[in-house]
Task: structure prediction
Amino acid sequence: MASMQVFIQDEGGGVTTIDSLAGVTPGDGRLYWVNAFEPDRRQVAEIGRAFSLDLSETDLARREFPLVHIYPEYLFMRWDFIARPTASRWLEKLPVDIFLAAGFIITIHGYPAAEASRVFTEVPGYLADPGTPLQTSGEVLYRLLMGALDRYWRACDTLSYQIEDDQKDVFEGDYDESALADLRAHKGQNMELRRLMAGHRHVVLRLIRRDIAFLPSDTARMFLDVYDQLNAIEIEIQNNNDVITSSFDVELNQTNNRLNQVMKKLTIVATIFLPLTFLTGLYGMNFKYMPELGWRHGYVFAWTALILIGVVMYFLARHITREKEPPGTAKPHRHEELPR
Result:
């Protein structure tokens, strides 16, 4: 259901809230913030006429990356806020089209007000606080973007905790295929979050260039905080990627180790039966004159020889395949004092 909130801050800092554009007169020294949810084309055109803007760029049906367009009198940007992460909905984008000029800021949402990010209720409360100094449109935008970072951090932290739990299962060696499937899913989520951060960093870099006439240099410098936070989130995303990669490496090493143990056991078995196979093959030849074939106790002797050879070969194979520490490589205990 379409709804609209118009916040008007006068020169004394007082804030008036209305639900229509009645009485909106841009350029009268007051700050206007129009916050529209699910507006139709008629309402968008009405907002454009009230502020003498061409709002044809706003099209929330398009799912594009964050972007910014700078014009002589105003700027247009699309910023992706995100919903609170849940088990069934990890990263749901809430795109907002923002129009900014010297005396106003317009935010247009393509969804109901109930789904909007919490920052859109916190900033109006901040503006209405009697102790809040007079704000500019750029400062309102700054607070909106800084509020969006809270959800980015929450999403990144949630993903980090899930990755660490799966990594712990892999490191302990007590895991099933679900842990690896979760890690693969987390890798895709991490890449999605990285793409989102990269798009937002591009937008903020454009804002801090200080060449926007209606965005004062002091306000432009404030967006450096947003850029620093995005960089910090990017570092966490890279850490998550490193953890996922190391987990897959550990799983591959564990698989190779298990395979080596199986091959070692098979090698011992093959080594034991090698001489036994030779003897049975030798006496299985159907030559007429073989002196051992005429022995009275030849059968018992053959079994005794086979068993004895098998036992000897077993212990010999165990001795050869046992891993030994090279002499002189023993390391001192960490609490023992190293020789000086």
Observations:
- The beta strands are 3-9, 15-18, 31-37, 67-70, 75-82, 93-100, 104-109.
- The chain has a mean pLDDT of 82.
- The chain has two domains: 3-251, 256-321.
- Residues 264 and 321 are 8 Å apart (CA to CA).
